[in-house]
Each structure stands twice: as structure tokens, then as C-alpha cells.
Amino acid sequence: MIVWLNGAHGAGKTATARALLSLLPESTLYDPRLVGSGLRGMLPARRLAEVTDCQDLPAWRRLVVETAAALLGEVSGPLVAPMTLLRQEHRDEIFGGLAARRIPVRHFLLDADDKVLSDRLEARAPKAPEAGRDHLAAYRRARAWLGGDARAVDTTDLTPRQAAERVAAALREGAGACDIVQTPEPTAETVAAGVLLFDELDRVLLVDPTYKPGWEFPGGVVEPGEPPAQAGVREVAEELGLRLAEPPALLVVDWEPPKPPGYGGLRLLFDGGRLAEHTARDLLLPGAELRGWRFVAEEEAADLLPPMRLTRLRWALRARAWGRPLNLEDGVPVGRTAG
Asked: What is the DSSP letter of 56?
């Protein structure tokens, strides 16, 4: 298990984490900042200059997960990780990666009065007040999703020991659990089936997974021996509570090359048809898997989908308009593409 102590700089995460070690038998302090320090010592300066924070490095997020898994193989008790995570997509990627390795996470938010946080930030970095104000503004923006994701502990009038006691008591009550769907990490190439569903304005339905960054199409990995179209039907029913009346038609098949740490494989998109307005209103969301859904036009999808998924969507929309499926390799059509 990992006890993740989130919060703004100055909320007392590290001091609380150290006090918590004495309250959780055989617990170990896991500081993800050390992962960042290691990357800063190994990556070329030109790469580091491309990001403003180590958290923006995909390598940092992967290594945080892998290091936690390795540590848990060496120790018998839980890990206590004091680390600020203000970007929801970073939380999704890290917690989703831990869930895929069957590592439960208890997420706590150490909060405090804004003035207290501001004073602490100024005391920590008196020569960089603007950086402190920028960080506090980012934290205020993140409070909305953090408040719904983590168990909050107000540290305004608490010592680190008292805050640790509050966290330990909440842990005994089972608080802070993140019920994220556990999708096993692939060990070889996979086949995945996604289903495009449209509203009466021909906007496409996207969903927001809790276990990985970026928006996605309803769908998932095809199970061994399962027909891909049927896998898409199954995933739509599981994710949205929607039973498709007939098998969806193929729009796109895309071969995704292996790009470590991913293994690649075949990615298929099917046309699930147009949903009536009353059907769309009744869509269900399993909290452990999806955070939300929305219908978007193609131009809106560009702000939500990662580049490869966006490319795949654009070709799928053209295939739908042309009335025939397209064969892609790494997002590039193979053969005739004209309508």
C-alpha cells in the first residue's frame, strides 16, 4: 500500500510523512523527489530545458510507479509518499500505473488556510515571492478535483504529529482509498476495440478515464478468443450501461508500432451509431473507471485527445463519411484513401 500525502508546498507533507512512520508499523518513507533528482543528473541539459518541472517528464511518472513497485518488493510495510500532484492527468497516470500493478493507494490532501500557505511559501523562498504566488494559484485551481479525489486533512492549526495522527486514524477507518480500475500492464502486443458514438449533431462521445491521462473513446482490450466487434459492444455496456442494438461497423484498423515501454498492437475503431437525446441523458459512469463523458466536435477533440488518438479519430470520421473502412499503419493510411 502507498499512503500518498498531497498538497501545496508548505502544507507540511514531508514533516507529516516522517511523523506518520512511527504510527504505521514497518512503514517506509518514499520521496518521489529523489526520482526527479536522479533524472536531473542523467538527462541532457537540452531535454531538461524543454520542461519547467520534472513531473512533466514521462520518464519521471513511469519511474515513480516502477520505483514504488520495486521498493514494495523489498519492504514489508506501506510506503508513505509526500508529493505534490496538482495536474489531474499526472495523478491519473501514476495512480493508474500503481493500480495496474495491484498496489492500492490511499490519497490524502494536506490542506491549510490560504494565508498560512502563503506565509509558509514566503518563508521557504523569500527571494522568489512570484514563484510562491504562482504555485499557490495552481493549487487553488487544483483544489476542485483534489477535494473529490482525496481525503482532506486541514493542517492550519496542527503540528506535523497531530496531522499524522489524523491521517493514521483515517487510514484505520478505510478513508482515502482510490477505487481505480485495475488494468493489467500488457506483456505483449494487444488488440483494442473502441466504439465511436454520436449525438444528434454528429458530435462524437469521449470519456475521461480515471486510470490514465487524456480522454479516450469507449472501449478496451479485446480478451483472448473474443471477436473485436463484440469486445467493443461489451466495453460500451460495462463503461456506459448502454446496450448496442446491433454489432458496430468497422471504421479504422490501425497498427500501432511498439514504442517502449508500450508493446503496440492493433487498434480498431467501430461506428456505434447515433444516440437519441434521451439515451445520452441516461448514460452511466462507473466511478472506478470513468470520471466523465462529453460529446465533442472534431475541433474540440483536438484539445482533449492525445495526438495518436486524435489522428485515429480524424481518419475514422473520414471513413464514416466515405462509407468504407480504412487501414492505417502508425496513423498513416495504407492504400487508396480518396473518398
From this structure: G
Q: Which three cell numbers stand for residue 258?
A: 511498439
| Residue of 251, 234, 255, 246 whose CA lies nearest to 319 | 251
Q: What is the DSSP letter of 186?
A: P
Give me the long-range contacts of 278-284 (CB less than 8 A, separation at least 24).
279/242, 280/199, 280/205, 282/241, 283/240, 283/241, 283/242, 284/240, 284/241, 284/242
Does domain 190-333 bear CATH number 3.90.79.10? yes
| Residue position matching grid coordinates 475503431 | 269
d(CA 181, CA 288): 5
**Cell numbers found for residue 8:** 501545496
Which has the minimum average pLDDT: 58-62, 86-90, 186-190?
186-190
As annotated, the residues of the chain forming the CATH 3.90.79.10 domain(s) are 190-333
The reply to whether omega before 261 is within 30° of 0 (cis) is yes
CB 146 within 8 A of CB 109: yes
pLDDT in tens, 265-300: 999 999 999 988 777 777 766 656 777 888 999 999
Mean of all residue pLDDT scores within the chain: 90
Architecture of the domain made up of 2-172: 3-Layer(aba) Sandwich (3.40)
Sheet holding 105-111, edge to edge: 28-29, 79-82, 2-6, 105-111, 151-154
For residue 5, pLDDT beyond 70: yes
Q: What is the pTM of this model?
A: 0.75
73: pLDDT confidence band, cut at 50, 70 and 90?
very high
